[in-house]
C-alpha cells in the first residue's frame, strides 16, 4: 500500500512538473543554503586551526607589556626580558620541551642587484624546535656561532625568492643593513599565518649577533616556550606567570608587566567564534525551509480542491479515509524529499565553489547533509498533513458532485 502511494505521488508530480518544481523551490533553496553555509564555516574553522598550528607545537608566547600592545603602549614601557629569564624557565619549569629567546628588527636585505625589506629575528638554535619548523636545506646554528655572535643567517622562502630567484642561497653572503652574513640554511615554506602575516618573509640570525651588531643592546623582546607532548599548557602557563612575576618583582595586587599567550586558547577562541557564526548563518538559512513547507501546504490544498472528484470516486469505490490521507501525505513527503536531494547536490556544489574561492579547505560534514534531508522530509510531513487530512475527510457524495 505504501509503495502504491509512492507510485501515485510520483505520477502526480510528473503530471504537473512545472508546478511541482515551483513548489519545492523553497526546500531546495533552504537545504542548499544550510549546507553551503555550514561547509564554508567548517572550512574556515579547519583553516584557522591549520594556521594556528603553523606557529608551533604546544607553543606559548611570552611578551613584555599587557595583551597585544597594552593601553598607552604598555608593552614598550615594560622592561625587556633577559637571557637569565630564559635559563630560569628552562631550569625551573617542568614540562618545557624547548625555550627560545627572540628579538626582532627590520632591515633591507641585499644580494647583488636585488633587495628586499624583511624582518630579522635574533634567536637561538631552539627556535626551529619551538616553532616546529624544518629546514629545506642547510643547517642550524652551532653552539660556537651562538656564543660568538657569528654573522650567519637562515632565510625564509620569500626572502630566497626575492633575493636569489632560482639560485641556491646556501653559502651566499647577503647584507642586512650594514651587517654582512653568510646564509647557512633555508627554512621550509609555511605560508601565511592566521593573522595574515607572511611567515616566510624572515631572516633568522643568532641573538647575540642581532644584539651587538644591529640593536646595540642586550634586550630580549619575547620568549617562545614549547610544552612537551602530554603536558598541560595551562599548567605551564601558570608556572611561567608565577616565575616571571617573581623574577620581574611584580608586587601582589599589581598587574603583570608581561603577557603569556597560549596558542591553544587563541585557536579555541577563533574556532568557537567561527562555529557560532556558522550556526547563526545556518539557522537563518533554515528559515527558508519553513517557507518552503508553507509553499508545499498551499499547493497541496490547491491540489485537493482540483482533485475533489477523484477523491470522491476513490472513496465511493471502497477506499478508506486513511488511504486518501496516506496518498496525499506521501505526495507531500516525496515533494519535500525530492527538494531536499536537489538542495543537497546544489549545496555541496556551491560549498565546493565557495571554499575554493575563499581559499579554505572543503570539509564535508555528513551529519549536516543527513540532518538537512531529514528536516526537509519532516517539513513535508508537518505541512502536508493538514491538506491530506482535509482530503481524507471529504464526503464522497459531495466530492462526486464537485465541478
Q: Could you describe the 3D structure shown?
A:
- The chain has 403 residues and is α+β, with helices and mostly antiparallel strands.
- 57% of the residues lie in helices and 17% in strands.
- It has a six-stranded mixed β-barrel with strand order 2-3-8-5-7-6.
- The radius of gyration is 33 Å and the shape is elongated.
Seen as an oligomer or otherwise, the chain set is single chain
Strand count: 10
Sheet with most strands: 6 strands, mixed, barrel
Q: What percent of residues are in strands? A: 15-25%
The residue-averaged pLDDT reads 82
Q: Total number of helical segments?
A: 15
Shape: elongated
Integer-rounded radius of gyration: 33 Å
Please estimate the helix content.
55-70%
Quick structural summary:
With about 400 residues, the protein is α+β, with helices and mostly antiparallel strands. Helix content is about 55%, strand content about 15%.
Topology:
Blueprint: H1 2-15, H2 17-23, H3 25-54, E1 59-64, H4 74-77, H5 83-92, E2 96-111, E3 114-123, H6 127-130, E4 135-138, H7 143-148, E5 152-155, H8 157-164, E6 173-176, E7 179-187, E8 202-206, H9 207-215, E9 222-227, H10 233-247, E10 258-262, H11 263-306, H12 308-316, H13 321-358, H14 366-392, H15 396-401
Parallel strand pairs: 3-8, 5-7
Antiparallel strand pairs: 1-9, 1-10, 2-3, 2-6, 2-9, 4-7, 5-8, 6-7
Helix pairs in contact: 1-13, 3-11, 3-13, 3-14, 5-10, 11-13, 11-14, 13-14
Give short descriptive properties of this protein.
57% helix; alpha+beta; single chain; elongated; 403 residues; 6-stranded mixed β-barrel
